[in-house]
């Protein structure tokens, strides 16, 4: 048994009177993907904001490689090897690929008496690291991030994390806004990061995406951990039901169908729920 890279013990988080997380205990191992599942508002983003130093837990403890840690800032978390790609934004559309790759850690060169940003080196490294992850359509690091597709932006953020030696990569719904092909690409990149021995926390609503990459799964319901299991221990249907808060999705679908029949006279073609 390998010991966990990251261990959370009984993490609670309240915002004033609102309790958002209750007694969350979790372990993430190096070279494994932990999928964090749960419906809207379950507390997934709040949990990863605690892991990435954005919020402090109200109580509970965190350990990295067996050592107790507490983060004062996102910078503190990233200095401890935690790289987070947040759910909304995170990249600056008007920044070049090279700039955005190195933001806060720009390579420099001497120019006479001055030290200046080494643009060609930054661009070259950024483009190369993206290529490593299979993004081969980009050959110019001067291109603006705003012109990249959603999948390419995710790849840029992941490539950056890998380059700077992240031990734990946290992705908050990286595939949510992507088409089928782009999502598959991001999933492949997640598996590449895992293969390099990086621990990944992958948040998604999509059970198929989760089952494709996950080694370990945790389901949050109303801020509590409702289930914690490993690959192969639950079926897709069981996971979907859990995510819906324990309601039987099959029953819900039957209800919707009878509603459709009653209101339109015909049923919808089989819905693509996932
Ligand atoms: N700063 C805050 N102050 C008060 N309540 C908050 C704050 N941040 C989050 N919450 C509440 O905590 C709950 C969990 O939010 P969170 O964003 O963690 O959910 P989530 O699981 O990521 O949902 P989604 O799947 O929609 O992204 C929500 O009810 C939200 O309104
Ligand atoms: Mg969220």
UniProtKB/TrEMBL annotation:
<protein>
    <submittedName>
        <fullName>ABC transporter ATP-binding protein</fullName>
    </submittedName>
</protein>
<dbReference type="InterPro" id="IPR027417">
    <property type="entry name" value="P-loop_NTPase"/>
</dbReference>
<dbReference type="InterPro" id="IPR017871">
    <property type="entry name" value="ABC_transporter-like_CS"/>
</dbReference>
<dbReference type="GO" id="GO:0005524">
    <property type="term" value="F:ATP binding"/>
</dbReference>
<dbReference type="InterPro" id="IPR003593">
    <property type="entry name" value="AAA+_ATPase"/>
</dbReference>
<dbReference type="InterPro" id="IPR050107">
    <property type="entry name" value="ABC_carbohydrate_import_ATPase"/>
</dbReference>
<keyword id="KW-0547">Nucleotide-binding</keyword>
<dbReference type="GO" id="GO:0016887">
    <property type="term" value="F:ATP hydrolysis activity"/>
</dbReference>
<comment type="similarity">
    <text>Belongs to the ABC transporter superfamily.</text>
</comment>
<dbReference type="Pfam" id="PF00005">
    <property type="entry name" value="ABC_tran"/>
</dbReference>
<dbReference type="InterPro" id="IPR003439">
    <property type="entry name" value="ABC_transporter-like_ATP-bd"/>
</dbReference>
<keyword id="KW-0067">ATP-binding</keyword>
<feature type="domain" description="ABC transporter">
    <location>
        <begin position="6"/>
        <end position="247"/>
    </location>
</feature>
């Amino acid at each position: 048994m390998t010991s966990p890279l990251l261990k959370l013990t009984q993490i609670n988080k309240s915002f004033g009177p609102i309790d958002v997380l209750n007694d969350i205990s979790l372990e993430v191992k190096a070279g494994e993907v932990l999928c964090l599942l749960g419906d809207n508002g379950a507390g997934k983003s709040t949990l990863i904001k605690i892991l990435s130093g954005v919020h402090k837990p109200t109580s509970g403890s965190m350990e990295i490689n067996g050592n107790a840690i507490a983060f004062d800032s996102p910078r503190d978390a990233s200095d401890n090897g935690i790289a987070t790609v947040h759910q909304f934004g995170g990249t600056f559309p008007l920044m070049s690929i090279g700039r955005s790759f190195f933001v806060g850690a720009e390579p420099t060169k001497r120019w006479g008496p001055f030290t200046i940003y080494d643009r060609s080196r930054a661009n070259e490294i950024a483009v190369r690291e993206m290529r490593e992850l299979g993004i081969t359509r980009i050959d110019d690091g001067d291109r603006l991030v705003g012109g990249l597709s959603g999948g390419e932006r995710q790849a840029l953020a992941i490539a950056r994390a890998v380059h700077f030696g992240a031990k734990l990569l946290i992705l908050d719904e990286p595939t949510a806004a992507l088409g089928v092909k782009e999502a598959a690409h991001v999933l492949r990149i997640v598996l590449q990061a895992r293969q390099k021995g990086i621990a990944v926390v992958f948040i998604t609503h999509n059970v198929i995406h989760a089952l494709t990459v996950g080694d370990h799964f945790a389901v949050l319901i109303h801020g509590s951990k409702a289930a914690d299991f490993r690959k192969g221990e639950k079926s897709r249907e069981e996971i979907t039901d859990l995510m819906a808060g324990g309601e039987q999705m099959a029953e819900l679908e039957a209800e919707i169908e009878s509603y459709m029949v009653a209101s339109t006279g015909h049923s919808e073609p089989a819905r693509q729920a996932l």
